[in-house]
Amino acid sequence: AFGLVFNAVQANSIANAMSNAFGWNDLYVGIAVVALSAVVIFGGIKRIAKVAELIVPIMALLYLVLALFVVFSNLEKLPDVLMLIFKSAFGLQEAAAGGLGYAIAQAMINGIKRGLFSNEAGMGSAPNAAASATPYPPHPASQGYVQMLGVFMDT
């Protein structure tokens, strides 16, 4: 699911950006993204590494250059921007929201940690051990029941 859904979100973002900036058809942009991705992915891990080695420094450099361009082209507004940042960051409402957000985040993190690390099923490594086990009776469903029971017993 991760490989299908999240890649589709990124491809949609690329298509929308190209459509809004240049008026290109979303379908053609999507086809181009799929074709370029296929050439890289089907080339194996070495091609993925070569493409990443080439593209990542260029992306980082372009990002820094564009960010500096935006800052320097609006240099007269920089003091107002910094003032707005500090005004918006240090207030009673902001402190309360930050405290509440921190509390919720800690509760979520602890719950996720317990779910992941309380047993091997949360990490995804339990199927490796289960695949090598011989269940009794010798049926895949009985093996599945044993694995499910381990999760319930542990958590």
TrEMBL record:
Keywords from the named record: Cell membrane, Membrane, Transmembrane, Transmembrane helix, Transport
Pfam families, alphabetized: Na_Ala_symp
Membrane topology: Multi-pass membrane protein
Protein family (similarity comment): Belongs to the alanine or glycine:cation symporter (AGCS) (TC 2.A.25) family.
Spans traversing the lipid bilayer: 27-45, 54-75, 81-105
Molecular function terms, GO-annotated: amino acid:sodium symporter activity
Major location (coarse): membrane
Entry's Gene Ontology cellular component terms: plasma membrane
Subcellular location field: Cell membrane
Protein name: Sodium:alanine symporter family protein
